[in-house]
Amino acid sequence: MSNFFKKKEEKPKPKVAIHSITGCAGCQLVIYFIRDKLLEILGEIDLVSAPMIKGKNQPGPYDICIVEGMVASEQDLEHLKKWREESKILVAWGTCATHGNVPGIKIFEDDEKVENTVYDNKSNLTGKNKPVKPTPIEQHVKVDFSISGCPPAEIEFMRMMQHFLMGMKPRVYNEPVCVECTLNENLCLLDDGKECLGPMIRGGCNALCPNINHPCTGCHGPLEDANIPQVIKLLERNGISKELIKQRLQKYAGLKFEELGTELR
Amino acid sequence: MGRVLKKEDYNKFLQHLKDEGELIAPVTTKMVRFETVKNIRDIDLNSGNPFFPIKKYFLPNKEALLKIRSGETKSVDKVEKKKLIFGARLCDINGIAILDELFLNHEYADEAYKKRRDSIIIIGINCHTPPSKYCFCESMDLKKEGYDLLLHKREHNYFIDVLTDNGAKLVRHLPEAEVDIPLPKTKKHLDRKDLKPFFADNFWEKDSEQCVSCQRCTILCPTCFCFDLQDEINPRTKNGDRVRTIDSCHSKDFTQVAGGHVFRDTRLKRYRHRVLHKTQFFQDKFKRSMCTGCGRCIEYCHSKIDFVKTINEDFQ
Amino acid sequence: MSLYKLKKYLIKDVIKQTNDNTMIRIQTNLNPIPGQFVQVSIPGIGEAPISSASYNKKELDLNFRVVGSVTEALNKFKKGDKVYLRGPYGNGYPMEKFKGQNLILVGGGCGVAPLRGIIEYIDKHREDYKHVELFFGFRTPSDVLFKNEVLEWSKRYNLNLSVDKAPEENLFHCPVGFVTQILERVNISNENSSVLMCGPPIMIDKSIEIIKQKGFTDEQIWVSLERHMKCCTGKCGHCMINGKYVCSDGPVFRYDEVKSIDE
């Protein structure tokens, strides 16, 4: 056996934290729901902080800090900056962290109007709770590695941890939903006249929705390389209204679509 | 010398095939696909060419090439079960003959491919009328090769061309007959020409602008063989596999080297590379076209980009 | 035996070359010809193609720059460890063809490593070749590869060493400037000569321009190309440019074969 592998085992286990800012916590749940295979990972790491499932949690430093959620308040920002300072590797986990997701829709609306609709009593929205422009975490701190998804698939967590533990830079699945969908031999919903966003959305989900005949709503956000104008043309060909397309694109990754040059306002 | 099968014995023949091993044939649920046949009544030859070509049985989307055990490697000794594929058309079958060039007859033959190739018997059917308006195989010089048996339907019976011993065994009970099966005719044609003079970007702009890089054209192509090798291991036990997965030249990562540089950095370059590989590069090297004219890359393209039309009309 | 089956070899020595370059010496009789490469495989991590930097029946030197997961892991290997290899692959430089000629070797950065294989080949077949001129460029003096051998080479061959810049002490007392600038200044004859190149694309392009101004034809220039490779046996498609597989048709091409090919 190569000594390379022996040495790995003698090393101290990497300190891992799983933290959360504004979001629904669903991305974290995906990790805990892995169960059996997660136990194998847990044997190889030292999960020092995971407030959702642990009573006693240690502060940093961490080797890997997995952050879900997006920045919506001053407090979020404070936590995020602290975790960044304490961590060697910071992972943006889930579409809130990577693209702003549903809370990010606020940027397309009037702040005042949204806050009045959501909160009965706005007197709490001061100090640390003061809202900031809802943004993905990479707009505030350096992110080493991003996996989008609302929520991301189990397999993406497993693959990421495999690569980290082997001392590699993780390789994120970077193909459109159509790839897995076609390999699953699904009937194409876009060709069938539906409002499927598949061709411009990052896969990795094994075409979860198209597999059950539901058009892709784009929860992983767009691929950097997507031909967005052409996909919009195809959706319009299917008779989908401009307004509905706009809403679909705003839903999970409006900021990213704007960054890639799509007019959403 | 071929054989002849009477129409009334057709179902008996299918049952005979099913008794020989795992029978795979076109089956229609929401659309027509190659599937393992549970009941021969499910076989459907009238709903067009199946969505996914028979390539999937020869070059699976994902397969383990090596076992990794605590940092050591071991060979994968997989036993391939006998399969019979019924109802494949000449475009798909020629596709396999083309894969054979690379994986079987090549300087570096591929063991896993060979094993599978040897375990599969192909019983093709000849097309009377093209199953889709996108078919253009008549232009692609298809050959009568790659199958074990090929059935050609006539009014009262099927004429069977026998190419291999494995095929002959399946039909030895049938009466002999003189068989000369005509190659299929198609309405659509590709104007075969040397594409080297048409390499400049302006010939490719119109089509590649409509391309959404979804990779369906390469995945559904009966001859696209490009693949990736990745290690998938359990971080605790350090056990796992080195797997081969289907890959596509339409992906931006396809030509990325360590360090990050991407050689085919634009969609146009990637689109042009695919079409030229199909129609020109392979031809130059192996003296046969890699495209078999099944038309799937046009039929299943979201934007219905028609490279045949472009080559015929715009490459002047 | 499977096409991707690996064989294990002993690492006899690990020689740190520069900050990010390491050379490992492997006990093997694979003996690739100069310009050929082997696929280094680390189970669980992956494979990386690395060019042979030697010409020797018993040992194989592989110099690599730490740039990806595999090279990062390989950089942790120690003397006495074992490493999996498959190969050798590729065509290599057609050394037979160059018999009786003057040879001009142009290399930059870790592209000098395969040229070291050519030097070792010429050492063993010295009578077959005439004048040998070397043009090797590195970023800084501390980035110079094969530091101990450079002096030896300069005794046997006409060595033109250069560094792009010299922020620290210039141990080699060599000119500061791009290798292409040195190439431009030196008088070399195109008569009965071949130019063998390996290095970053920008250096290759510029060098070819200069060499052609000096009267060399495309048929006298040989370049080694770099591409993303997986199978290394002319199948997986990653390294193909315009129908040519860099892994099996190359990686060494006569310039007229590749000059007009675009991606």
Give a written overview of the molecule:
The complex is a heterotrimer of chains A (265), B (316) and C (263). Chain A has 265 residues and is of the alpha/beta class. Chain A contains eleven helices and seven strands. Chain B is α+β, with helices and mostly antiparallel strands and 316 residues long. Chain B has one domain (2-314). Chain B has ten helices and twelve strands. Chain B has helices at residues 10-20, 55-58, 90-103, 111-119, 165-171, 205-210, 216-219, 267-286, 296-299, 307-314, and strands spanning 2-6, 22-28, 32-36, 62-69, 72-75, 83-88, 120-125, 149-153, 157-162, 176-177, 227-233, 239-246. In chain B, the strands form two sheets. Chain B has an eight-stranded mixed sheet. Chain B has a four-stranded antiparallel sheet with strand order 5-4-12-11, with no helix packed on it. The longest helix of chain B is centred in the last third of the chain and has 20 residues, at 267-286. Chain B is globular and about 65 Å long. The model of chain B has no long low-confidence stretch (mean pLDDT 92). By secondary structure, chain C is of the alpha/beta class. Helix content of chain C is 20%, strand content 31%. Chain C is built from six helices and 14 strands. Chain C has helices at residues 69-74, 112-124, 147-156, 179-185, 201-213, 255-258; strands at residues 7-16, 21-27, 37-42, 46-51, 59-65, 82-89, 102-108, 132-138, 158-163, 193-198, 221-224, 240-241, 244-245, 252-254. In chain C, strands 4-3-6-1-2-5 form a six-stranded antiparallel sheet. The chains are: A alpha/beta (265), B alpha+beta (316), C alpha/beta (263). The A-B interface holds A 1-2, 4-5, 40-41, 43-44, 159, 161-162, 165-166, 171, 174-176, 178-179, 182-183, 185, 187-188, 190-191, 198-200, 224-227, 230-231, 234 and B 30-31, 33, 51-52, 61, 70-72, 209-216, 219-220, 230, 232-238, 246, 248, 251-253, 267, 300, 302-303.
